[in-house]
Specification:
alpha/beta; 3 domains; six-stranded parallel sheet; 16 helices; 44% helix
Amino acid sequence: MSIRTIHIANALDFSQLTTQLALRSTAENTVESRVAEILSQVQSRGDEALLDYTQSFDCPDFTVGQLKVSPQDIAQAYAQIPASDAAIIREAAANIRAFHQRQKQNSWFLPEGNAVLGQLVLPVDRAGLYVPGGQGGETPLISSLLMNAIPAQVAGVPSLCMVSPPRKDGTVNPYILATAAILGIEEIYLCGSAWAIAALTYGTKTIAKVDCIAGPGNIYVATAKRLVTGQVGIDMIAGPSEIAILADASARASWLAADMLSQAEHDPLASSILICPDATMLQAVRGELARQLELLPRHEAAVRSLADWGALVQVPNLDLGMDLINTLAPEHVELCVQDPWSFVGQIRNAGAVFLGHSSPEPVGDYFAGPNHVLPTLSTARFSSALSVDTFCKKTSIICTNQSYIQAHGAKIARLARLEGLEAHAKSVEYRLEDIP
């Protein structure tokens, strides 16, 4: 097991880490031309192209008639999963829904003098949810469906559909369909990768186009979402998973190692960083990483992740460690320190923050309620978690009367003429002439 140890004395040393991690953003940037061709084919050929790609990459015997999942298949899938698992999914969904209900914004109107100003907060008309297949359909990404569907439902999106790639036998994992049933999602299509994003963007005979697409995926999905941005709304361009942990001597080495591996097992490009002033703790975590790695089914991915993008970082104090975290702007931050709340005021850039020794990152991934679709690759400097706002649009309302025009019309006309827009000025001035 290989993982770097980095010694940082001051902020000038941060580049040892930031320069290396920045390379992840281009590590797999090799598929754009292929994705562009897929988008073009689906736009021009519709269902026929979806069928060709699905037969080539997912299910050789797939037919157009299998694109839409029947209500009977959804009901049958729900009946297949254990009642105890369905109860867990329902409880997680309730937690997620309760959290996102607090994000809802209301339309508002502000009477002010001779004007009424305001804002309409409206859901998009239709949203598409992408749910990855997960290890050939054998590791259903239940949490991805929950985290994307529930904010859309809370936002009030009237039309919601889901897409997910079929397995080789033309089915989808029953846990995905059962979760859809629990959420009340009835419109489900079996297609994946970039061609599913194309179908949602442009529409086909079978799949009606959407206004907003949300959901994670591989490099083909991420690239497709990036290329269609502007034609359709998207949640974000998700990069590799990442975690930065700030720890002190009160932490447990075995817990810290487990939390680092919880991200490393995702992907060879995932980044797991432990920042700690205590050299003894860092050494203990190194030993725990080696021990726990041997127990992981995704051993190979985790080994590569730690070797290429992981680090054990020794800092002189926790305050400098927080400065480093804000510079990294990571997806997940854990504060595994004696008094985590004392550091909350120092947080500036993070997707989600987990406070204390008993708040591991998977609590947020699956169950607590906050969304796990988070900004990566330092984009937490300027972006936020997926939320109800992802599925909403805001429309300004302006209502002014003739008294308002009389009081301010000349000023508005002057500003228009400063910009060389005479018709703008006249639009106001004609109303000034009509004032009795």
